[in-house]
Amino acid sequence: MAEAVGIAVLVVGLLISIALHEVGHMVPAKRFGVRVSQYFVGFGPTLWSRQGKETEYGLKAIPLGGYVRLVGMIPPADQVKPLKGTGKAATLIEDSRAVAVEEMHEGEDHRAFYRLAWWKKVIVMAGGPLVNLVLAALLFTIVLSGIGVAAATLTVRDTVPCVPAQVGAECTDADPASPAAEAGLQQGDIFTAVDGTPVSTWTDLTDYVAERPGTPVTLTVMRDGEELDLTLTPGATERTVVADADGNAIEPRVETVGFMGVYSELELQPQPIQSGTQVTGEYLVLMTEVVATLPVHLYEVSRAALGLEERDPNGVVGLVGIGRIAAESSGAEVEGFGFTEKLAEMLLLLGGLNLALFVFNMIPLVPLDGGHIASALWQAVKNGWARVRGAAKPFAVDVARQMPLAYGVFGILILMAIVLVYADIVAPVTRA
After folding, report:
1. What is the pLDDT of residue 245?
2. What are the distances in angstroms from CA 52 to CA 15, 128, 152?
3. CATH number, domain with residue 174
4. SS (H, E, C) 153-206
5. Max alpha carbon distance in the chain (Å)?
6. Sign of dihedral through CA atoms 268, 274, 277, 279?
7. Mean pLDDT computed over every residue of the chain
8. Listed range (22-26, 103-107, 172-176, 406-410) with the worst mean pLDDT
């Protein structure tokens, strides 16, 4: 049941994100006078539609995207340089232009998208991705500042029975008893001091104990309203260190540390209100790096799908993989984690998807939004250069000439989706 709820939250959230993305295109287009003939969420057969004053609104069967149809995206032949050459590419260009011209109603040439000033085109085409960026920041803010981040407290949730040879290992008969059990620590005890020094965070306590394996320490705890002093001798265990005290990555090394055998009670702690935008900026950099190296990631995913190497748990995943992660997150039984914490995980995942939609759509290739933005910026360059030279206003950038490229990009996207779906089935990424 939890898995179904988690996937439902993700699917509904993704559909809302897609719908709002298209609203981000439609609203400024209408404000600038462009006729929007269709607004649809999804692809394939139409499940429902309603005809508005001049826009048909609807929902299609395959919830993998959406679109708004802006009249006049492709300028007519008399507004662009004459097309030279023949062949399949030329035929595709002219066919695309003919379809665009047919959409124009008589007397509404002034409402065509191609007639807009270049900066208005940028606003219209950037509106969709920017909505996703804002949604990502909003979702991160809701989780971090509204719900909070799970953090360890000074309250004992449970104790472990032994000191394992390595952190995270199962107890065996050969392992010594847990120092926490020997010291008499109980569930609900609240640490207040260690060796007479007050502690205010879980890290204060654990860092102190970690530095003293085998050295007795005095723990002051609050139990049933009374303070007790308990003597605990930290056990010795090993852990791998991969970062220094400032969080900077270092060469991994193994060190011996003190071990109590205590599980802390977790609580949600709201973060500063600016945390959401800060995380958005950090993730934006990481997401951009992933997209910039996408061919490499797809090559690695393909090898993993063929069984030639292990799947990178931090690599790219498709919709099947995202659904699997959502199901595992919502269905996982994590001690101390309830519905609120799992909902927070779903919202963080949805925020990451919105950020991915922003970055991916900003790639400067048609049919992606970034390709149309690049065309508008190129129009600005052409216009500016003409003004500098005192020349006549140049022809409009001919989007139709980019249609062969658009079909090529679309084919690559389909192939990428197929590879990711197959890899997510035969070599899935899991939370483990």
Report:
1. 65
2. 21, 21, 54
3. 2.30.42.10
4. EEEEEEECCECCCECCCCCCCCCCECHHHHHCCCCCCEEEEECCEECCCHHHHH
5. 91
6. negative
7. 87
8. 172-176
To the query of whether residue 211 is one of the catalytic residues in this protein, the response is: no
Q: Is the pLDDT of residue 17 over 90?
A: yes
Residue 416 lies in a domain: no
d(CA 19, CA 28): 15
The domain tally of the chain equals 1
Domain extent for 218: 150-269
Task: Check if the beta carbon of residue 233 is closer than 8 Å to that of residue 184.
Answer: no
* 74 inside domain: no
Q: Which residue reads 């790219």 in tokens?
A: 316
- Identity at 62, one-letter amino acid code: I
Catalytic hit among 3, 22, 251, 333: 22
Q: What count of other Cβ atoms lies within 10 Å of the Cβ of residue 168?
A: 7
Cα separation, 155 vs 263, whole angstroms:
9
Residues in the chain: 432
Q: Which pTM does this prediction carry? A: 0.82
Residue 344 per-residue DSSP state: H
Model confidence pLDDT, tens digit, residues 283-296:
999 989 988 888 88
Q: What CA–CA distance (Å, rounded) separates 420 from 418?
A: 5
In a domain? residue 415:
no
Q: For residue 8, tell me if it sits in a domain.
A: no
Q: What is the DSSP letter of 229?
A: E
Residue 62's contacts (CB-CB under 8 Å, 6 or more residues apart) are: 42, 43, 44
Q: What tokens does 118 get?
A: 């270049």
Three-state secondary structure of 254-313: EEEEEECCEEEEEEEECCCCCHHHHHHHHHHHHHHHHHHCHHHHHHHHHHHHCCCCCCCC
Asked if pLDDT for residue 397 goes beyond 80, the answer is: yes
- DSSP structure class, residue 105: P
| Alpha-carbon dihedral 16, 428, 282, 334, rounded to 10 degrees | 80
Give the residue carrying structure tokens 């945390």: 275
DSSP-derived secondary structure letter, 144: I
